[in-house]
Amino acid sequence: MPDHDNAALLIRQTKRRRVDIGVKRTVGTVSVGFAHLKASNFSAMNSHGTEQDVNCSVVQHTDSEKSNVLQKLLKRANSYEDTLVTFPGATIISQLLKNNLTKNGANELGFQRNGLSRRGSEIHQEDACSTSSRGSPQECLSPFGRPTMSQFDIDRLTDEHLRAKRARVENIIRGMSHSPNVSHRIGEAERDGAPQPLSPRESYRENKRKQKLPQQQQQSFQQLISARKEQKHEERRHLKLQLEDMQKQLRQLQEKFYQIYDSTDSENDEDGNLSEDSLHSDGMDNRVSESNRSENEMSDLDPGHFLDQAQALICEQTMMTEGEKPKRDGSRGKVHKSMSMHAEGKQLAETLKQELNTAMTQVVDTVVKVFAKTPYPHSQGFPAVQTPSERFVVNHENPDFHTSNQRLQCFGDVIIPNPLNSFSNVRVPNSNDQTEALPLVVRKNSSDQPGTLPTPASHHPGLHPSPLTSTMAFSPPSFRHPFPLHIMGYPFQSPLGAPSGPYPGNDRVSPESMDLSRETTSLRTKMSSNHLSLHRPISPTHPGNHESLSISLIKSECGDIQDMADISPYSGSLSPNHLKKAKLMFFYTRYPSSNMLKMFFSDVKFNRCITSQLIKWFSNFREFYYIQMEKFARQAINDGVTGAEELTVSRDGELYRALNMHYNKANDFEVPERFLEVAQITLREFFNAIVAGKDVDPSWKKAIYKVICKLDSEVPEIFKSPNCLQELLHE
DNA sequence: AGCATTCCTG
DNA sequence: CAGGAATGCT
């Protein structure tokens, strides 16, 4: 929204206003200029608002969602079938498939809502499945539901598909909401009987297209619509007829099927072996009774569903479909058992087995090809043709069952039906594979853990391609410790602090610079990543020159190449201990002059870069300090504090804890009392200013800064010693 | 122009 | 904490 933008711009502009107190930081003198003082709005409090963003939506997988996931799979599996080639001799299942298609078309209203023939198209499959997710979820449960189709069917469906697509595109492009009764989503308009409200964006698009559409085209479009409606009605009648026909055939097939399996079951039972088939003889009987359904119930069974039942019977996994459907004692049951049917049924069973097997193989091939990135040899690696019963026996006994299920999780929202577990020889990701994303950034060893300096193993190979890294990667472990020191340009130093190694001329060596055990290594990280990875590789012929080369790189980056021969490894950069020292100094001085810094960091070879960095440090310190002050002042106001006198800064207070955590994280330095006083003054200044409403002034902090900058106290002399950290922290 | 400082961002 | 932008002083 424009208002938002303007507001943001305004905020930014006001924030951009400096709060420059104009402290001139020349030697020892502190002068305060007021003329140009400006202040800015503080936005520190905004950080509280981020909690609202932590509104994580927890995805809970309910059963219904699981079934949805299952249907997603099935949708995909159905679409995969479109890529399958026609199986030679696929007579029965082909017929089932064809009938299935027509039946779906007749049953699902969604199929007709475009007024176009979309049989066999992926869109239709999507519609059917998505619709069935609301109504009868079982319709799309099996990827084997339509495992094959004849070439004629494919051609016809493809043609219809193309026609449907073309017509639909025409509809969308030409006719979008020309008539109030014709929305661009015709199906919705027809179902709801009212045009869908359009978003402004959509209406904009429509207007654009409206202008380009002549009046005549609108009329012709309406004619087209009505014509297609008629076509649709006719098609619906035709489909109903087809459906009835198909249902008859289906019933016959079911009867034959059950008769066959009844006979084979009895045969198997005779030899005493409880084969998988025999185990389901009871279930068979149940299904036989189910074959006596009413027409309406039969319409809920598509051929794919029928095949699912067959699989379920064989593998003792009822495919969950029947349980949800109320069983009726059909009064029109017709169970014919004749010997001629028996022979015919056996042939039917064999054909069914082969069909199932072939379909399974094809589906699996397709699915695996789609899912597994690494292609595996087509039709290789599969066991010899098995009977469906052999193939489906597996699940509840298969030792690989659980791993297979786990493996399925690798497919995300796609779940492969259990029969596919038998593809244990297919190379798909399993539970032993890497399923979680590895962190791209290896967590650095904290220097809070003494002696755990980064080891070569912790380096991501892609992040540190420098020859140094690779060199060190082959160093013996005992050599690892000085590694970061070399990178940083630190001398290889004995723990006693005496300079050693190839730096005889180092008179500025300070032991504290070696005290890396506690400090964080941000600087080291930066240096190692910038100056080693991004710059010229070290010449392999000069393996011992890492340090000096690094130093030179660092120095040249600072634009100060003077006195290269006299470079101390310290002078090139500020160490983490320097930072620590600066933080401790902040307890005494908030506005140190550059000269003061030079005095207190005498072990540093100053140049513009170093000076700026040190000044920047203190600027950052102040920033944090004032942010905390304002935050706590506002918090006190919100808590009902009325007088600044109530505000105190004590060592057990939250404010002190925050400050101490920032400047004295290790808590190994005794914060001077004076700092508490200054902090309390600062806090009260903020409090009073806010209470007085001065914070409406963009430069309201200038007065506070002016006050605080005068409260600097003398930094103890011990800070001038390069060894001050040891002396301070170990007494 | 150079520098210091604040503010913002990552 | 550093980099960069903006700003203002000298």
Automatic annotation (TrEMBL):
Region of interest: Disordered: 112-151, 173-236, 263-303, 320-339
GO annotation, cellular component aspect: cytoplasm; nucleus
Principal location listed in the UniProt entry: nucleus
Acidic residues biased stretches: 264-274
Bias (Basic and acidic residues) ranges: 227-236, 277-296, 322-332
Ranges of residues in domain Prospero: 571-729
Pfam entry (one): HPD
Positions with biased composition (Low complexity): 213-223
UniProt name for this protein: Prospero homeobox protein 1
One GO term of the biological process aspect: lens fiber cell morphogenesis
Gene Ontology molecular functions: DNA-binding transcription factor activity, RNA polymerase II-specific; RNA polymerase II cis-regulatory region sequence-specific DNA binding
Keywords: DNA-binding, Homeobox, Nucleus, Transcription, Transcription regulation
Localization: Nucleus
